[in-house]
Amino acid sequence: IRNAASVLQNYFDTIQKYIDPFSELYVKLDFDSLFSSYWYAQKVNQPMDLPILSAALENLKRKWYEEVALNPETVLMDKKDFSKRIKQIKALVETQFAGTEYVERMKRSVEGMNRMSVSEQLTHFFEGIDMVIGKKEKKALQARNFSAHGSFTGDNIDYEEQFMISQVYQCILVRVILKLLKYDGNYIDYGTIGYPEKNINCPSGNENP
C-alpha cells in the first residue's frame, strides 16, 4: 500500500509540475489539432495513419517556427550574406536567359536556394528542442512518403514492420511534446517490442541513433 501511495504521489507531483507549461503550449502550439490528429490516426488502417501523424508533426513544427524558433524564416544562411554571395549568379542568369520569358523565374529559383527543405526544417526543429532522432525514427519519418505514394501496397507487405513504424512515429510525437515541456524523465517506448521505459533522450526503436 505504501508503494502504491508513493507511486500515486509521484504521479500527481509530475502532473503539478507540468500542468502550467502544458496549458501555455496547448494554445500557443495548437496542441488541440495535434491530439485530434493523433487519436484519429489510431482509428485508421496502417499505413494510412502515417500521413495523418506526419501532418500533425508538420503543423506543430510550423507553429514552433512561428512562436519560439530562433530562425523563424527557415533559411540556411543570413539573408544579407546570401544576397551578397548570389549577386554574380543572378547577373549571370540575366545574361544567359536574356530575351526569354524565364529571367525572373530563374532569379527566383536562385534566391530560393537559401530556403530550408521540409526535411531540413524538421532537422532544425529537432535540434532546436534538443531531441536526438534514432535510426528507427528516421525510417518512420521517411515511411510517411512511402505511404502517401502507395509504396506500402502489393503482395509482399510486412505487416509487423508497418505496425512498428506506426508505433515509432507515434512515439516521435510523444517525445516532441515531452521535450517541449522540458520533461527529463522516462517515457514508454511503444516502438520497441515489450514496451520498455526509456529516458526521454533515448530514441524510440530497437536501434541506437
- Please identify the structural class as seen in this structure: mainly alpha
> What characteristic shape results from the CA principal axes?
elongated
**Helix fraction?**
55-70%
Helix and strand string, N-terminal first?
HHHHHHHHHEE
Number of helices: 9
**What percentage of the residues does DSSP assign to strands (E)?**
under 5%
Outline the secondary-structure elements.
Layout: H1 2-28, H2 31-41, H3 49-67, H4 79-85, H5 87-96, H6 103-112, H7 118-128, H8 135-148, H9 159-180, E1 186-188, E2 197-199
Antiparallel strand pairs: 1-2
Notes on the protein architecture:
The chain is mostly helical and 209 residues long. Helix content is 63%, strand content 3%. It has helices at residues 2-28, 31-41, 49-67, 79-85, 87-96, 103-112, 118-128, 135-148, 159-180; strands at 186-188, 197-199. It has a two-stranded antiparallel ribbon. The relative contact order is 0.12.
